[in-house]
Amino acid sequence: MNTIIRVVMVSFALVCANVSAQEFQGEATYKSKRKIDIKLDSTQMATGMADQMMEMLKKQFEKTYILDFNKEESIYKEEEALSAPNPQGMNMVMVMSGGSDVLYKNIKGKRYTNQNESFSKLFLIKDDLEDIEWKLESETRNIGDYTCFKATTTREVEVRESGISFNGDKDLSTTDKEPIMQEITITAWYTPQIPVSVGPGNYHGLPGLILEVNDGSETVICSKIVINPKKASKIVEPEKGKELTQDAYDKIMEKKMKEMDERMRSNNRRGDGENIEIRIGG
Question: Which residues of 237-267 are buried (b: 16+ CB within 10 A; e: fewer)?
Answer without folding.
Answer: bbeebeebeeeebeebbeeebeeebeebbee
